[in-house]
Specification:
The complex is a heterodimer of chains A (576) and B (285). Chain A is of the alpha/beta class and 576 residues long. Chain A has 18 helices and 23 strands. A 7-stranded mixed beta sheet of chain A has the order 9-8-10-11-13-12-21, sandwiched between helices. Chain A has a 6-stranded mixed beta sheet with strand order 2-3-1-4-5-6. In chain A, strands 18-20-19-22-23 form a 5-stranded mixed beta sheet, with helices on both faces. The two termini of chain A are 23 Å apart. Classes of the chains: A alpha/beta (576), B alpha/beta (285).
Chain lengths: 576, 285
Amino acid sequence: MPSTIISIKIGAEAGQGVKSAGLMLAKLAIRSGYHIYNQIEYPSLIKGGHNVLQVNISKEEVTAPRKVNDFLIALNQDTVNKHLTEFADGAGLIYDSAAKIDTSKVPSTVVLLGVPLSKIAKEAGNSDLLINTVALGAVTAVLGGNLLILNSLISEEFGSKGDEIVKVNVAAAENGFKYVTENYRQHLKNSLSPLESLSNFVPYMAIDGNESVALGAISAGLQYAAIYPMSPISNILHVLAENQEKFGYIYKQPEDELSAINMAIGASYAGARSMTSTSGGGFCLMTEGYGLAGMTETPLVIIEGMRPGPATGLPTWSGQGDLQMILNAHQDDFPRIVLAAGDAKEAFELTMKAFNLADKYQTPVVVIIDKNICENAQSFPLYEYSDYRIDRGKLTTAKVEDYKRYASEPSGISQRTVPGVGNFFIANSDEHDEEGYSSEDIDNRNIMMEKRMTKLKTCKEQDMEKPQLFGPEDAEITIISWGSNKGSILQALKNLDGVNYIHVNWMSPFPSDELSEMSSKSKYILNVECNYTGQMEKLIRENTQIKIDENFLKYDGRQIYPEEIIDAVNKIRSKK
Amino acid sequence: MTKMSDLQTPHFPNWCPGCGDLNIWGAFKNAAVKEGWDSSNTAIVAGIGCHGHIVNFVKINSFEGLHGRALPVATGIKMANNRLNTFVFTGDGDCFGEGGNHFIHTCRRNHDLTVLIHDNALYSLTTGQTSPLTAHGFKTKSTPQGNPDEPFNPLTLAIISGATFVARAYSGDMPKLTEIIVEANKHKGLAVIDILQPCVTFNKVCTHGFYQQNTYYLEEDYDPTDKHKALERASEFGDKKIPLGIFYKSDRPSYEEHIPQIKEKPLIETPVERSSAVELFKKYT
């Protein structure tokens, strides 16, 4: 498709700084007034292997990666070999001409821009670590970017490491920039020159879902987080750990996920706004605590960042195979609120919302994200949440006469209290009566089960939101999907007529009537998911009469590309 | 002021007559009356097993969690509100089978909790199977040919893992147990009390008589600050050679004392407010 997006892919071994170089290029773009979408792909190891990061830059909003690259920056031979089929028309290859990199297999239409990256790096500071900075200077020159902005980014990035480090990095970037300007004048583009409207300009953030979840939690008044490290959510805990003293909450690394969820439940029982986070494998361990929070009616926010399974699966790749687990895990029924974010901004907003819902309904709230959301950065204006109000629900810290923690209420929601204020209650994993005493009485069991489950009905009436519709109301083909597929579908819609998109955020309670109403005009429904069995399709079939005409399912761990959505739509059209 | 009647719930213990749990229950209530523990200053966490029923028989705020998970719940409570005296009631199966990993890490971190282990060397609520503390060769429903596994020693495990107050008591000596519970709660850091108790239904060897004949108290001049000595004495076990008392005490600061966020006041005493993250957002521009 003709693209208004410039895609630059940087490839190197793990440990060569692909991520930081990509982020710096993205920041250079946003400070020059552009939108970005960064896609990072890497294997599960720390040194070696093949890491790539694609920076997508556009004057318009960009929400997905592309299958092709306008520039490939190869810091090693592997990068050249592995991406030979991904060159866009008129693409260029920037490679280290001082290393023995073989370009003989590169298609002849590709412009070869050899730059002695390692030689320039050596001259600037005698360090391999500088190679990516030289490459940044080189690509900035090719794209027509502003060297001063790049230099100030370098100063910010390396400032904490001392003036000498800043100096050599600036020299490395400048020399890379200079080499390209002097040797490839005829190939210089104008894709990254600062836009004219930059006066009074507040740059966007280049932010990923992990960072957004952490900032959302902090913004929502987080008090306690216990999170065991796991790809792809570890960066949530890094951001939380770093900022805990400043904001006054506690982050704790527990010994395992069992402990993580139980610590978070204990803190919440004691009155703290509390959360945990994990990926599918860790969630398996948390399953018992998930139901414990439901049974004891303890508020809890759980962020589940999906990656492909089963078992260890593909640790650093993305998938959407945990939906049915999250909707069904744990023995017997309890009210669970399950939300799914479609991008970093939604992850921020749903995390904040999840804390209020957990407090209001006194039950676990899961926000599902996936590796693409967790780790791919996108440009957004600074998040605005001035209309957010903390809602702690029916929580009292005053002494109440004749207090009954689990008293029956039409809404299912009883008055909650905390230990230490003198209101006696037991939070009991056994079935219990209104005060929390263990009880196996038949009538009590029925009352308590119904009370707990009523909360979900109340939530459906008072808080559940309908799916979001993108594109025309009346369309020939309707795509239904969720999670990070949103970005690629929206990007594809820009190139498709007669197609709309229904994006589902609420999984439990499920907006059955709303989705039925929204899709009632649809003539042909394409369900798009990254799992083998169509877990969202199952959910739709369980809750509605909607007929899904076709599934597009992908389970190889790789992101769905806009090109694949367009192909899928074209295929449907050719059949009709 | 806590009166004995304040602690009474509508439910009388359903433990077997003669069970050591009854003594532990009594000793704890005696300690609570002595020290003024109630729902305004104390929280109890229990695991799953016969011991866990105690939440129904003591009128103080409590949390009965899942099998093996009492310690992490208590840890979360303590970090959120370090003003609460936080007691963990757990059993030898609960604490060392399902919860073994939590035990060593809770010791290592030295959270300011008091852990009372109802140690009857059996799984009794599931009608008598072997536990990690059951003696080698002992016949149970799950080891009818005799237990092939060696038990481990909860005291040396606690000391080596980093607990800073480690004691052993016998449930039948309620005055002494009361005293140790009070001492343990006063200690700043993780206090572990291994409480030997009979299972009158499923353990016909370790009876009240057995413990009365085979236990003795550490000497008056015993020095609990000597870690090597503590390990040595805690390793003693045999006919008429089961020592009781406080084996080890160290003044290593508790976990909670290391956290600046709760230096002034407990976490939950600062009301939840919307925070401004604008400064953090700017890092991403």
